[in-house]
# Entry
Amino acid sequence: MYHDKHHIISHYERSIVFVESLANITEEQWRMPIEPGKWTVAEVIGHLTPWDKFVVKQRLPFLFTEESLPKGPDVEEMNANAARNSRAQSKEETITNFINQRHQLIDALYQIVDKQWLQPFTIGVSELTLYGYFASLVDHDVHHFSQIQNIGAIKWTSSI
# Structure
């Protein structure tokens, strides 16, 4: 397997273990803002799920085709909807939804042939590689997981 593909998939597999471990935090910790005026742990985890779904359904199938990429969602609206849904869901439901969607993402990544990981493609005016695209998504995860760790909820070990 291509070295960088392995790092990305490894991060996503470890992210599932990290989020599964959040089942052990208290409801108070789960509903606690990561910083004053910021989202709760529930909202942080909950907002990752629709983005994974977007990548699986609206990005990966189109990246190496002649078809245009579907227009991306409004970031603020998608995040606000995800946060609202997370506030209404149980901890178990949010964690399960994350894990199920993250598994779908991992499965999709395994289907990508190794040579495509460094093949350039364009999103808008930006030229990227698949590795570069996913490295930025991994950085986003790591940022949020570190925030959760900082409130003392759970331990995250950094990835790529």
